[in-house]
Amino acid sequence: MSAPISRNSPSPGSPSEDIGAFDGAEALLRAWGRGLTPDPWLTVSEWSDTHRWLSSRASAEPGRYRTERTPYMRAIMDALSPGDPTQRVVFMKAAQVGATEAGNNWIGFVIHHAPGPMLAVQPTVELAKRNSRQRIDPLIEESPALKERVRPARARDSGNTQLSKDFPGGVLVMTGANSAVGLRSMPARYVFLDEVDAYPADLGLHRA
């Protein structure tokens, strides 16, 4: 024996039927749909060619980044992409061949497409601060996809300092290999070690 169903009781329906009766429902549904849509499948080099802009502060050739200018970096950058099984990339190189910019492209890709805690290490804390001013700040400011994810440093509680950049889903922490404090207790999903040959041999004797 079944109980009678009241005509006034709500009937099961789609979420759009449930929320379609108030102002802003269409915008909410559009936002919901965008949230369910997977991000485009990009490699780091593809992301760089699409979203990276070089500032005159950081490059002798300002404008859109083009991997074809340093084609030997393509395979290295793409090995840093989430779809690649590589866990560690080691690059032995000469000076001024574009490796740091490739690493900065990886930083931009992480902020935009694969957020998580990231540690970027320069030989010293002073070099980390200089790199932040000359490379990372322009990276963010000149690329709209990144600028909308990292709040300006002048904003209250922005999480944007000289050595730390908060973004949705992650944080970029920059430090020097000479700083035991800067390297301690940093759970990092991604680690970018730059100019490793200049790192101190004994961290215990070189603290910042």
Automatic annotation (TrEMBL):
Protein name from the UniProt record: Phage terminase large subunit GpA-like protein
Pfam family, one: GpA_ATPase
Biased composition (Basic and acidic residues): 144-157
Domain Phage terminase large subunit GpA ATPase as annotated: residue spans: 59-203
Domain of life: Bacteria
Organism: Rhodovulum iodosum
Polar residues bias: start-end ranges: 1-11
Stretches for region Disordered: 1-20, 144-164
